[in-house]
Known about the structure:
It is a single chain. This protein is mostly beta strands. The protein has two helices and 18 strands. The longest helix is centred in the last third of the chain and has 15 residues. About 2% of the residues have low confidence.
Amino acid sequence: MIPAYNVIICHPNRIDGAELSGGAWVESLPLPNIQDRAFARVARTIDLAALSTWFVITFDRQRTIRAIAIIAHNITTGGRIRIRASDAADFSVVKYDETRDAWPSASADWNIDQLEWENDNYWLGSYSQEDAQGQTPISQRVLSDAVQARYWRVDIIDPANPAGFIDIGRVFIGDVFVNPHINYSYGGSLGYEDATTVQTALSGAEYFDPREPLRVARFQLAHLSHYEAFTQALELTRRAGTWREVLIILDPTDAEFGAVTCFIGRLRQLNPLEQVAWQTNSMAFEVKELR
Length: 291
């Protein structure tokens, strides 16, 4: 079981080594685009029919999976995602089968008292479409227990999507690599970095080349056991380096703000492991969002 509330870092992303099939996709925006790390190269369904908005991920053998994320998508706040796992290609026997909202909703203890009657999300009690804009949309799912399976099927249920199609920029599917039994220390931070450039004219007028802000999470795991320190924290820096993808979830139990505190990124720098006491270690992490 994953310790409640504690930060999760997932690695590696096994989507790139998988075979993809199923659904109906625009010829110029095919399903394999979800294996491209450039989120702008989306895979797009031809329509919203149930026969079109699904795909199967096939591994070469059984793989241990505990986290799945649909990234840079256009699923609306009323959309849902069903995920199934099986060792049978026809999914005649399933090891995992669950359907959830693509975005956090009232079922996640949303504080409806803070919503106005006129808000477009009043009855849903979820993110509004405006809330979802300006950051990379991500729908993540952390399984309560690891599932070993060769075939994974994803169905997207969003028949009222005004776009008339489903876009997916990237998929993360992998195991949890770092999940300490003692959470990060107080003082951890989550913020946005803005790369917008500003030019000032002789008159003093300012002109902007706007860029979307990127999330950066910084925290210290200050109470790592020897096992966690060497098999998780230090080993992650070796395997991921500063360029491979990691999926970070600051609080897997936070359904209300989970879309903000979860993103796919990279380790900005490889910090050393520090021994702070007998068989107690510490390591600082800085994860920068990828686009």
